[in-house]
Amino acid sequence: MSVLKYSGDLVSWLILLICCLPIIVLCSRPRQIRPKGCRRLGLPPGKSNLHDEFDPKYSSGVSPTRKDGDLPAWRIKALFAYPLKSCGGIELQTSDVVPTGLKFDRQFVFAEHGTEGWNTRTLRNAGFQRLALIHTEIWVPDPSAQDYDPSLPEIKSQGVMIISYPRPQPQGRVKMTCQKIGMAIGILRCRYSFQVPLLPPQALVSEYPLLPVKIWKDKPLAHDYSALIPPSLHTYLGLNPSVSSLALFRASPDHTRPIFRNAPRKESIGFQPNTAFADAYPIHLLSLSSHRDIAARCAYAIPKLSIMRFRANIIVQGPSAFAEDHWKRISVGGVEIHAACRTVRCKLPNVDPVTGVRHPAEPDRSLKSYRRIDDGDRTNACLGMQLVPAIEEFVMGVGDEVAVLETGVHRYIKMLAPGEKVEGV
Fold it and tell me: Which residue range or ranges hold the MOSC domain (predicted)?
């Protein structure tokens, strides 16, 4: 008895763990979550079209007229959607494209309450690098599923998103050691998870009120999902609920953010470009050759700099490094898409998406050493392109041909405050 009372003794904790083993196994065994009547979007776990991203062959471009077996040499190598901004992405083989970009991309965001109301929180914000280890899954209704039923809440909400994150570490070396042992032998879950509706069901829409959320200089109305956040998520992010009020918001389809600046005009394409919680434009494209160039310059600090750090939607293979800098219009799978402007980079890619650790310098330092190339912003580096499709809805997929329709000069236009106008526009 005296042994158990001494909480600082590691042997005592191990004895307690062994004695409670049957109960722990029953209560804490990891469970496979499959929302009823739904199917999971994306490639199977462990599969990726980027399995060979570090192959030296991607360091050089090839002719756009060349064939790679039955595939065009210039093509989509991989597709990604990031449903919850700054959190883990979902790799796709094909994707619907909607006015805000890839379907489900950047539709959710975390925010904290400040003097100006709700402010979005991303990997850029100090202390939020742990967002990188939060994973998402999108489950959509599947009428062919045996348990499909239109009356299910998962179906009424047009599917669900599962959000998972690492089990928070307890305070104290002994408790931490016991937790590691429990996770290692499979009696404790390594990750916690919860699910949210993809859209508020019509009958329950009042439970998810519309509130303004500040993202850069915009304040779109979004549905407040905060009531669904479990306390353990605050613990994982290192937030004190009594000091920091963390919220989860879902973009409202009726209150998207119109895009101006470098985007094509409504008069030109027949509709107003818009986005949800993406930084500025619907789709982000990056080429493997361009990435290999910067990765080589960072190798002294980061031997294998993954392209995943840059969180692009479309990753293309074929063009030589930085050929995309001068694209104005391209065709992807036969669909015309405007290359609105270059992607101006911040320090967000310094966060490793696998570990959640922020590098103190790279790749930001190397990028700024030679990629401050746009006269519209000579302070920051550029890598990749921001895209606006010329039609509102279509489907794109891995293997789709990428062709250049028009090249020209780009000049980045910085984000404006509400009411400001671009000179000459």
Answer: 257-405
Residue 206 to residue 197: CA distance in whole angstroms: 14
Pick from 327, 349, 351: nearest CA to 338: 327
Q: How far apart are CA 410 and CA 254, in angstroms?
A: 31
User: HSE on the CB side for 340, CA within 13 Å?
Assistant: 25
If one compares 26 and 248, the residue with the highest pLDDT of the two is 248
Residues 78 and 307: their CA atoms lie apart, in Å, by 11
Long-range own/partner contacts, residues 117-120 (CB < 8 A, 24 or more apart): 117/211, 117/212, 117/213, 117/214, 117/219, 118/211, 118/212, 118/213, 118/214, 118/247, 118/249, 119/213, 119/214, 120/85, 120/213, 120/214, 120/215, 120/277
- Whole-angstrom Cα distance, residue 327 to residue 323? 8
Nearest to 178 by CA among 27, 4, 10: 10
Is residue 4 classed as helix, strand or coil in its secondary structure? helix
Residue 175: its pLDDT value, please?
Answer: 47
Which tokens in the block code for residue 239?
Answer: 């937030």
Looking at residue 33, its pLDDT comes to: 73
CA distance 71 to 316: 13
Residue 403 has pLDDT above 60, yes or no: yes
The answer to whether the CB of 50 falls within 8 A of the CB of 89 is no
Mean pLDDT in residue range 368-376 = 97
So where are the chain's domains? 43-407
Judge whether residue 334 has pLDDT over 90. yes
The answer on pLDDT for 24 being more than 50 is no
Residue 28 has what pLDDT?
Answer: 43
Residue in the block written with tokens 């709700």: 118
Type of residue numbered 71: L
- Tokens at residue 413, please? 């236009």
- Identify which has the larger pLDDT, 346 or 245: 346
Yes or no: say if 142 and 37 are a contact pair by the CB < 8 Å rule. Answer: yes
CA distances from 243 to 113, 114, 152, 422 (A): 10, 11, 37, 40
Q: Please identify which residue in the block is written with the tokens 């990997």.
A: 123
Please report the pLDDT score of residue 423 as a whole number. 40
* Phi (first) and psi of residue 103, to 5 degrees: -55, 135
Radius of gyration, alpha carbons of the chain? 23
- Split at pLDDT 50, 70, 90, the class of 173 is low
Residue pair 344/413 in contact by the 8 Å Cβ criterion: no
Enumerate residues 6+ apart whose C-beta is below 8 A from 352: 132, 309, 358, 359
Structure tokens at 355: 């570990």
